[in-house]
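Researcher: We're teaching a course module on how sequence relates to structure. For the next exercise, students receive a sequence and then see the predicted structure as tokens, so they can try to spot secondary structure elements on their own. Here is the exercise chain.
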Amino acid sequence: VCSVNVHEKGWVDVCSAARSVGIGVELGVWTSGDAVTLRANGVPPGTTRVLAESTVTDPETAVAEAVRILRALGSLPVPVLVHGEETGAWPVLEYAMRMRIDTRIGFEDVLVTPRGWLATGNDHLVAERLAVPVPLLVHLEIFYGHQTSYPQAGGVPAASLPIGRNGGSLTHNPASRRPRSSGSDVVG
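Model: And here is the predicted structure for the students to work with:
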């Protein structure tokens, strides 16, 4: 599988070339504008998943951007995974888990724990998330010293959801009863 970002020039041609040689595509959608572009062009054949990537790093607005992207994507014929970046990664992860949407956490997205400590690796980020017994939102409010406001939903405790490591990142798949893993180590 190769990653292709919808905002890049020639993305449709790259998807077609990948498919012609038997390579699946994971589409990166960074903004609601990218999502509209994808909807207008349709999901290219050979697409295995869409990554809705909130690139907003402000923890107060990262989830709102993720929600805008998801709404603009609408219903797609392939799975959608949503994640954030930097200090926006943790609130997006929490939101996705509460909403039972596929998500991930790893060094590609964030280098610090929810409490602001530099993580030692992907396993440290995963352990931090699994060790938090109360909603992450509370920790973010304490760490950042302000109230965050983003959509409330769910009712399923994050700790009860199946979680596995995939590609060095924590990957949560709510549709699965068992953790998915591309490697031999599984958390959950």
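Model: If you want an answer key for the exercise: The CA atoms of residues 5 and 28 lie 4 Å apart. Helices lie at 11-20, 32-41, 62-73, 89-99, 122-131, 136-144.
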